[in-house]
Amino acid sequence: MLEAEDQDELTDINLKEAPGNHNSKNISVYSGLILVAVLGFLSYILYLQVQLSVLLAPLAFDYKEYTKFGVISDLHLDLKQTSTTCQWWDRKNYTHYESAYGTTGCDTRYNFAAVTVDSFSELLKDIGSVDLIFNLGDLVNHYTTNFVKNGELISNATELFQSKLPVPIYSTIGNNDLPEDYLQPINSSQFYESFWMKISPLLNATAESLEKHKAAETFSSGGYYTIEHSARLQIVSINSVSFSVRSNVEISSGLQQLEWLSQVLSDAKIHKRVVVIIGHVCPSLSLFQISRHKPNRTMLWKEEFTHEYNKIVSQYTDVIKFSLFSHQHDNQWFVKESKNDKSETGYVSYYVIPSVSPVYENEPSYSIGIVDNNWNLLDLLFYFCPLSFYTRQDTDPHYLFHFSFKERYFFFEDTKKSFIKDMPIKNEHLHNLTLNLLNVNDMQNTYKKILFNSYQLLYNFGGVSPYQLFCIMTQNTIQGAKDCLSRYSFEF
Questions:
Q1: pLDDT at 411
Q2: Residue 189, helix vs strand vs coil
């Protein structure tokens, strides 16, 4: 497609031809441009046919009778966005295609946030109700740095959730939810108390349940809490923004939260409860920052917190069923080898859930998780909205089924479909799947699957080889990444 400046250059070209050939030359030029346009259009139609044939393929498994949970993340609600403009860090008053629902390159307009919640609600009529929903943070749009305005945005988002989604919604705090991005405010208790007042009604929890683990108290002091969703399942929401390399939280305060986490997991094990951990910033390396050549932001957590967190969760792999993070606006997973206090080798893993906000040129997405009766993770289903397509067609946007994690990444035959369907996705399975990036026979196949499922293809995978991707997905410390990359003749 020709950019505007290229078109201007074509217009200004002074063709030096013989007088008799003037018309024939012009016809030749125009014919060539028309041919290019036609070929481009046909290529685009073919591309859409291929994409839609994949996107609209039916789900291989029927999960209607299974226990399910929903995940919505990085809403980044922008109430100031108009039908043609939005605010973004490098494009103030950025003008886009006119649309009532916004477009990629901007945060989420309220109209589209309503479409997302409506779509989620309608989906549950088809696939069956969810037991609970996880909101993984960043309700507020980027670069809103005002205590009152943040509060208004959080209120609008939570009211929208509550109006359409009548199940418990467990929230965690994101870096943009804070009045100053990543920075804990001086009056942190006041801010956390205000935030808690907005998200706690979504929990549908009894006063007894909230009091048992002093949820309001721990959230007011540091933005984290735990609640027993049922006699068997306990939700742990950590304030992982406090662990960020960009946070101003004192090391001692961060370690205090990790001591609390260790005690919560220990109590859960004693009382034979299973745990799901939710947070915003993942304890991993950042593909996004690596692709932008930002070495000071490659590590998402400070090393002190990463090492301590690794040590804690390694002791409770039998208690923690899975961990969900977001922040990177993309679909990823990370799996790390670990050793418990008995020196037994195991693995800890984290899933990163894509965002509703299309601000990084990604298409909006939400997810549905499938679990068995013991809350072992069976599958993750991803739904997305091709917002850029709907914007250009000037039609109302809709969410489409994108893919099943299990169906996409784990090979199965028809005769084994029921077995695969009920097989939990364990940390060892994720480790073996990631090892395929080193397998010469399967390397490109796995790599292409990861690329295809990325919602930020242009940002995250420019120039990253399968070996580099493997190291990023299996290491979450600088030294670990350096050692891994050096084995494959790469520098960090």
A1: 59
A2: helix
C-beta separation of 334 from 471 below 8 A? no
What residues of the chain score a pLDDT lower than 70? 1-60, 88-97, 145-148, 288-297, 411-419, 452-463, 492
Question: Which residue type sits at 269?
Answer: K
| CA 60 to chain CA mean position, Å | 24
Query: Given this model, what pLDDT does residue 481 score?
Result: 87
Count helices and strands in the chain by DSSP H and E runs: 18, 16
Q: How far is CA 33 from the centre of its chain?
A: 41
- Looking at residue 51, what is its pLDDT? 47
CA distances 465 to 445, 462, 468, 469, Å, are 13, 9, 5, 6
Q: How do residues 335-368 score in pLDDT, each as one tens digit?
A: 998 877 777 788 999 999 999 999 888 889 999 9
Both tokens of 190, joined, read: 């006041």
Q: Which one-letter amino acid corresponds to residue 155?
A: S
Q: Residues 432-443, buried b or exposed e (16+ Cβ, 10 A)?
A: ebbebbbeeeeb
* Helical segments of 182-229, H only: 188-199, 207-212, 215-222
Residues with Cβ within 8 Å of residue 338, at least 6 apart in sequence: 310, 313, 314, 317, 345, 346, 347, 348
Looking only at the bridges linking them, the beta strands covering 365-371 and 67-72 are antiparallel
Nearest to 330 by CA among 279, 365, 290, 368: 365
Output the pLDDT for position 15: 29
| Token pair listed for 432 | 């073996």
Residue 46's pLDDT is 45
What's the CA angle centered on 441, arms 440 and 442, to 5 degrees?
A: 95
- In DSSP terms, 86 is beta-bridged to 94
Beta strands 274-278 and 233-237, pairing class: parallel
Q: What is the pLDDT of residues 243-264, one digit of tens each?
A: 999 999 999 999 999 999 999 9
Residue with tokens 């961060």: 254
114 closest CA partner among 183, 56, 60, 164:
164
Angle between helices 215-222 and 251-270 (to 10 degrees): 160
Alpha carbon distance 113, 397 (integer Å): 11
SS (H, E, C) 154-187: HHHHHHHHHHHCCCCEEECCCHHHCCECCECCCC
Half-sphere CA count of 69, side-chain side, radius 13 A: 26
pLDDT at position 137, please?
A: 94
Q: Taking the model in full, what pTM does it have?
A: 0.86
CA distance 110 to 155: 13
Q: Are strands 332-339 and 345-352 parallel, antiparallel or unpaired?
A: antiparallel
